[in-house]
Amino acid sequence: MNQLGGSHEPIRLYDRLVGIADQLQPFFLLGIRLYIGYQSVTSGWAHLHNVANMTSFFASLRIPFPHVSVYLSGWTELVGGALLLIGLFSRPVALVLTLNFLVAMFTVEYKNYSFSLRQLAAQIWANQNPILGDTAFPFLATSLVILLFGPGWLSVDHWMSRRAQRAEGRKPCRRDFLSDDSGVQS
Asked: Is a pLDDT exceeding 60 seen at residue 29?
């Protein structure tokens, strides 16, 4: 019994739940990375092997330099996706992919509202379906997860980080490669 007369059982159950979730986190992050990596590679491949159609589509969205943009988007998704599959440079790649998917979502939705920012903003404020229903939304959400939480310990980034810390004589910490240059140990 605690001081208030209650049991510590809810706290123990909560701690157990947190422990289980912590142990599942690297597998979840691996699954997220594999999902977005594979989807990005296939999307990038499709862009690069269908340049004429993609250029027409990009032009219909009024994307500047549509031909160049197809190659830029295609290579970003192809190379970025491949890097995410192995977990290499995951956070910088996730940042670039996040920006790529934001642009994709914005341009499609902008077109759907007659290229009116006012109409688009009013619709998003009233109903989030234009954003949540966009085909780029799952890509955006998963790239944000990797950007914010890192690739997990089942990644090349983690292996490189631990190796670099050992070479510097520091105790390896749980941080992700390229996320902490301060040398502060967790």
From this structure: yes
- Angle of helix 9-48 versus helix 90-112 axis, rounded to 10: 70
* Residue length of the chain: 186
Q: Where are the beta strands (DSSP E) in 25-175?
A: none
> Which residue would you say has higher pLDDT here, 102 or 85?
85
Residue 147's CB is within 10 A of a number of other CB atoms, namely: 17
84 pLDDT above the threshold of 70: yes
Residues 6+ apart with CB under 8 A from 28: 152
The Cα–Cα gap between 146 and 157 comes to 12
Confidence at residue 180, expressed as pLDDT on a 0 to 100 scale:
40
- Entry pTM: 0.76
Structural contact between residues 151 and 29, judged by C-beta atoms closer than 8 angstroms: yes
Q: What is the dihedral of CA 160, 78, 145, 163, to 10 degrees?
A: 0
